[in-house]
Design brief:
Blueprint: H1 2-6, H2 12-25, H3 33-51, H4 55-70, H5 76-100, H6 104-130, E1 150-157, E2 162-167, E3 172-177, H7 181-195, H8 204-214, H9 219-224, E4 229-232, E5 258-261, E6 279-284, H10 297-305, E7 311-316, H11 322-331, E8 336-345, E9 353-355, E10 360-362, H12 363-377, E11 383-391, H13 396-403, H14 405-409, E12 413-417, H15 423-437, H16 445-457, H17 465-468, E13 471-475
Parallel strand pairs: 1-4, 4-5, 6-7, 6-8, 8-11, 11-12
Antiparallel strand pairs: 1-2, 2-3, 8-9, 9-10, 12-13
Amino acid sequence: MLLRLIHPRFRWLQNTAYGLFWVFFLPVAWADDEFISTYQQHWLEAQSLQRQQLWSGVLAAYSAAFHALQGQHKPQDLFYAQAYPQYIHRLEALLDEAADTSDAQQKQHLLRHALDKVENLRAAELKNYFQNQRLNISTATLKTFLPEHTAVLYPLLLPQRLELLLIDTHHLHQYSVAVDRAHLTQVINRFQYNLQTRSRWQFISQARQLYDWLISPLLSELEAEQVHTLVMVPDGPLRLIPLAALTDGKQFLVEQLATAITPSLRLTDTQTHPPAALNILLAGLSTEAQGFAALPSVETELRQIQPLFTQHELLLNEDFAWENFTQALESQAYSVVHIASHGRFEPDHRQTFFLTYREKVNMGQLQSVLRDNHQRHGQALELLTLSACQTAVGDEQAALGLAGVAFKAGARSALATLWYINDEATARLLVEFYRQLQGASPLSKAQALQNAQKALLRQSHLRHPVYWAPFLLIGNWL
């Protein structure tokens, strides 16, 4: 209570102290002797300084204790129960201070500091999901290069409010929306569920509400900057929804803006543009395999995509074996790898897979072969498309795996779906996407996807967002 009376910006220390107390005394395997010694030293120092009301020292000591905590390898449940709240407390303090200051320069400084914390949190979530503390994630201060007419949105679901941080080519902007995390999550879950019911349009009320919360506060800035591409770094349950299907009641967002997502802007090379000539490795299953149902339109999909590229290779059905796939990647570098097969993103990354004709291939195997291809040929994969894959419905941890697929597989971009949809609609959309991408007028991947989605939207029997909305462009959108 004393901290609250002295200054509101220190109110998070009580919550931080409580959370760190339980982390410290929780007898779990990841707290080794060296960690206990370092952590205890900073923790006791913070308590001593707090009793003396030396607040700047308190902040520094708690920060050091937090960094000791941050470096530990924690099971997924402990990360969200213990470490995650500490990130949120620190973020709230920075955002409160930024909202209170009238000094424009100081506000920009605080918001950039907050963005660094958000990026650290997103990196920690990816490390926790993949259970690998040695993932190649930069810890440098966030520096952004954004093309003109592009903006990046960070929605932050705080316990009592929604904070929106928007980066455009000139400034950072902060917006606060009066909706608590529990209510927002409830609307998101209802939206996702209703959106997948083809026969009804009950999702519209949630689509409008989410548009009002996430997009409406930004509109004046988006219009002033003439933004045509909006990239979102999603938080929590927002990983479960397609931005394209939000609506203002007159138009879907896809009719207004091209959209993409990235698990972290720091992980996205925003200065890299795809090569002028793309070549493609096409692989897929149209027949029943390993107990999974046939996907009849896959062969049509692959054979219609094939002539859009001057250089291509096709592995279909029995030819789509893991050995053939790896040999194809060894023989030459491909700009695009397109896999049309059953696949699934699960809360446990080790259970995430896609099918070849005889094998189940996990993302670790795919990552390994694609990175070997990059090292062998000196050319990074521009785009990995996973057609007919889906996430574990309603599970934001599985959706984190979907968002991390491009990074984990060593691709600059990935195109994947939130849920399995009609394979005829999939074929139509993907053929149009590649046609747009390879057209005479150069388009970004995000704009090519937008045009492909609008092409389905204009067809009466495919107008429902269930057919075109679940396609997400992940990573580099250029």
